[in-house]
Amino acid sequence: MPDHAHTAAGSEHSRLTAFGDHLIALHDELRRDIAALREEAARLPADGGAAGPLALPDRLRSHCVTFCEALHDHHTTEDSAIFPFLSQEHPELSEVLDRLASDHRHMATLLNDLRKATETPLAPGFHAELERLSVELLTHLDREEHYLVPVLNSLTNLPVH
Fold first, then answer.
1. 145: CB partners within 8 A, 6+ apart
2. Close Cβ partners of 91 (under 8 Å, ≥ 6 residues apart)
3. Domains of the chain
4. What is the percent of the chain with per-residue pLDDT over 90, rounded to a whole number?
5. Which of 57, 97, 133, 150 satisfies CB 3.0 to 4.6 Å to 110 for a cystine?
6. pLDDT at 64
7. Among candidates 56, 60, 75, which has minimal Cα distance to 136?
């Protein structure tokens, strides 16, 4: 007869391990999206070049706004649910979690700056704002994965929403 308790425990561990792996998958989507935005933006003359200020194509503007919303939502979830849970379960992570939350606040400012650059018919500074956000985001994602994925993959319980 199979040991149902052992099977259930193995299944639960598998689900919990997937929590850290899921974070990596979400981050990989963000990396692909920011790379695609940078690629689209690279096809445009930097701030218009000789033609004057840059007019963003609707497709690029829409892609950028969608990305900004997704990143904001991701960080909001981490700040409101994941980080408080980890702080309670792993107080030794308090400095790391404070740094990651600080990164989120800084990126919120960069997201607002990028959104503003997309709201005007002529978008001077769009390339620079996108690059600033990209550099900060990629550094942050690497930092977050370095510190949190091992912890997330070792959890024995999950946050309750």
1. 23, 24, 27
2. none
3. 4-152 (1.20.120.520)
4. 60
5. 133
6. 94
7. 75
